[in-house]
Write a structure and sequence with these properties.
Alpha-Beta Plaits, alpha+beta, 21% helix
């Protein structure tokens, strides 16, 4: 299983129009494969939409995208001037991650935390997280955990759903009291290169033409500084519920 994460940076004010056209075109695209998740950012890198597509492998991705491209109703009919940048990355799920997608309603906001590790650290990261995640999930579920195969390499991403920011603060405070969390970072791969700051992403209530609105108040906050030697960069974004309520799974974790 692979996940393609497509991130589009749009012109200011154009996210509602993009979501409307995406909603209209999505039933045609899902004749070929299902959408895994859809979010837009609310705090952090603004005017950004993120959609996730699961595939069995790269060959299936190539085949399905070729078939979908022949559909007259896909991709959505948007003005090309709407787009500033378009990025695509391929992620591999961690062994303990539950499949993304389906009709799961895990939360109203999703926090996406991204850590970039030194070369060679990922196997140890996955091992330590495999041991620690069951303890963290005593407090709230993991929506996704994956690492890059194509795109920005050595990147570890984990996504956590919450009802709201208050619940996020409460759960994170409780989880930090556990002796098993956060997962220990490898300390043998050099010093951190830099740091990134957090972003809060609000998920749309529904992928429809007129009712897509943030469901939490926007407020800025800053991510924890990366202090563990193996971690080169750490950033956090909080995302809103996936468009159709779909999702699949310092003390910096």
């Amino acid at each position: 299983m692979i996940y393609e994460v497509r991130t589009y940076n749009l012109q200011p004010g154009s996210v509602p129009a993009f979501e409307e056209s995406f909603a209209n075109a999505l039933p045609h695209r899902e004749k070929y494969s299902k959408l895994g998740a859809f979010w837009h950012t609310d705090i952090g890198p603004l005017n950004q939409v993120i959609h996730v597509w699961p595939y069995e492998d790269l060959d299936e991705r190539t085949k399905i995208r070729a078939e979908a491209a022949k559909d007259p109703n896909w991709p959505p009919k948007n003005d090309p001037a709407m787009y500033i940048t378009m990025d695509s990355e391929i992620f591999l799920p961690a062994p303990f991650m539950r499949p993304l997608g389906g009709d799961q309603a895990l939360g109203n906001i999703y926090e996406m935390r991204t850590y970039t590790y030194k070369v060679g650290a990922m196997a140890e990261v996955i091992k330590r997280w495999s041991e620690a995640v069951p303890h963290r999930e005593e407090f709230s579920p993991l929506a996704a955990a994956w690492y890059t195969e194509l795109g920005g390499l050595n990147k570890w991403v984990h996504i956590w759903p919450y009802k709201d920011l208050a619940e996020r603060d409460r759960i994170r405070a409780k989880s930090m009291q556990s002796p098993h969390w956060p997962a220990p970072h490898p300390r043998v791969f050099g010093r951190p290169r830099d740091q990134d700051y957090g972003a809060v992403v609000v998920l749309a209530d529904a992928l429809t033409a007129t009712s897509i609105r943030p469901n939490i108040s926007t407020r800025s906050w800053r991510g924890a500084r990366c202090t563990v030697p193996a971690c080169r960069a750490m950033s956090s974004r909080i995302k809103v519920r996936d468009v159709r309520r779909r999702t699949g799974n310092s003390r910096g974790a």
